[in-house]
Amino acid sequence: MKVPTTKKEKLYFGLMMCTGMVIFMTFYNLIIHDMLGKIPLSAIVLQLAAGFILAFIVESFIVGPAAHKLAFALPYDKSKKLYSILSLAFFMVTGMVLVMSLFGLGTAYYFTGLGDKALIESYFSIVLMNYLFALPLQLFIVGPTVRRLFTKFVKTPVNEPIEPLLLRVK
């Protein structure tokens, strides 16, 4: 299992992960709030774009660095990739759900209002529903898919020497 090591690889990995999670989480929230089909397609596209931009910025500059520090500060065998993946996923999902649920609360308020719930009650309700969906989604679907695609299409094999194209052609 390859992990991003260069800044360029980290950028691509982050873009891939954000894309997958934002698409799934946006449609999950539209479905659970019975909004699919009630808001125009243009609003959904706008929500996807805004969600992606916000998620990528938050993941890159706030949650990602904090999650890495927390995950690798835990006392576990760092040579076991599975432990690293699980601890990092836990902290990333926790941070992203806490922040992105604010975005979800704002868009829900814009389209339907809060109903009879208090603001803080609505926020924690959204956090709980999003967390229960996002953690398994990250661990079992998006995370493994992105790591597989990243390894296949982006990551340069470590043992393969990088030589000019002319030297490879015989």
From TrEMBL:
The chain crosses the membrane at residues 12-32, 44-64, 85-111, 123-142. InterPro entries: DUF2798 (IPR021529). The keyword DNA repair does not apply. The keyword Transmembrane applies. Keywords: Membrane, Transmembrane, Transmembrane helix. Pfam families: DUF2798 (PF11391). This is DUF2798 domain-containing protein.
